[in-house]
Each structure stands twice: as structure tokens, then as C-alpha cells.
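User: quick one
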Amino acid sequence: MPHDASDILVELTDVSKAYGQTQAAVNAVSNVSFTVRRGERVALLGKSGSGKSTLLNMIAGLDRPTGGRICVAGSILSELSPAAMADYRRERVGMIFQAFNLIPWRTALQNVELPMVFDRRGKAERMAAAQEALTAVGLAERMRHRPSELSGGEQQRVAIARALMNRPELLLADEPTGNLDSSTAGEILESLSRFTENSETATILVTHDEELAYRFATRVLHMLDGRLDHDSGAVSV
Ligand SMILES: Nc1ncnc2c1ncn2[C@@H]1O[C@H](COP(=O)(O)OP(=O)(O)OP(=O)(O)O)[C@@H](O)[C@H]1O
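Assistant: Done. Structure below.
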């Protein structure tokens, strides 16, 4: 299928991140360039400390590059005002973390409803949408439970429902199965695949697990010491 420039959702150009000053600086990410198309599923694969989370956090707008630029849907992130950055994170990006990051005193339903509290939909409509999302991830019977009353796999499915609630253009997943046993990890990966396949949502999955990366992604970018390892086929297309 032919692609054109308008297919490109994310474009990183020479992105670097150094922590600390001068001689003592740690170059967590060095001159990374790649693009992600709408609907594409990309994995960032690398060992612990290779810079994957730093890179993902910069794409999420949670951290700023010290060099280069990140452009998402035509906006250069470093040029966004704080208010525009908050809109970007709320409206365009969904995130899933290894530690699930659910709010412990809210039920599954209330956690999933959360990204919608700022939009114009009324409470009843938001609740109906959250119920539908939880049903889709197989948690129809668990909606009124708090995170501590759910298994790890169930908590991550709540997090997936929450992340996809606002139909983000970009889903960022940082080791989403890192805290789960291998069969639960497989189920979570299947849920993620089901919801992102044939959808407009592009996904960037960060993992150190090679099998997981190749099972999920259509393109695997290898990271090594803060750089993309182009010899591994990690070419930007
Ligand atoms: N806030 C910080 N201050 C200083 N150095 C940092 C900071 N955050 C990360 N680093 C360093 O940057 C490098 C990349 O870290 P990063 O967490 O991005 O790697 P990673 O590939 O995601 O690793 P892991 O899989 O263990 O999370 C590491 O050497 C780390 O020690």
C-alpha cells in the first residue's frame, strides 16, 4: 500500500537526552531519529538502561529532549504551551505502564471514566462508555472492584480500557506485561493486539523481551546505549 507524508504521526529528529551537567552527564538518549505512521505498531527493544523509557516519556510529553525535536500530528512538542501540552496528553495520547498506575481508591469503572471527566459528555454517557470499554476487555463482572481486589492481569486490562477511552491517536506502552506471569502476559498482549489492529491508533511498545516485541509489532527498533542500532534493521522508513 502506498504511503504519503500525511500518514506520519510521530517524527523524531536527532532526539537526545542528557541528564546532569558536562563531564558527569549521562547521555540517556543520543541522536535518535525515526517515524511512526498512523495505525502502526512499533516496538522499542533494548536492555535495561538503553534509554527506552526516557525516549517514551519524551514522546508522551512528560520529559523534554535536550537536543533534536519530536513532532506529533504536525505539532513540535517543545513549542507547545503548558495548556496545549496538557491537551496533547489528554486528547491524543494513551499510556500503559508496567505498574498499572490505577487510582487505588477508585473502582475499575471510576478509573476508566477518569480521562473523560474533562470532556463535554454527561456523567451517564461517560459511565456507559466506561462500562462498554470494560466489557470489551472482559471485565463486565469486575467493574465495581477496586484495584486491590483485582489480579495483576485484570488491573492491566482496566489500564488498557482507560488508555483507549479517548480513542488516542498514539498509545504508549512501557513494559506493560513486566509484572505479569507469562500466560497472563500473553493474554494482555492479545488484548492490546485486538484493540490496536486495524485501528487508527499507532502504538509504541517499550520492552526488553524480544519475543514479545516481535509478536506484537510490525516493526522492531533496537536500542543500544541510548542509540538506535541500525545494524539490527532498525531503519527509519
Ligand atoms: N532522572 C535521571 N537522572 C539521571 N540519569 C537517568 C535518569 N533517568 C534515567 N537515567 C539514566 O538514563 C539511562 C536510560 O534509562 P532508561 O530508564 O530510559 O532506560 P530503559 O531502557 O528504559 O531501562 P529499564 O528497562 O531498566 O527501565 C540509564 O543509564 C539511566 O540510569
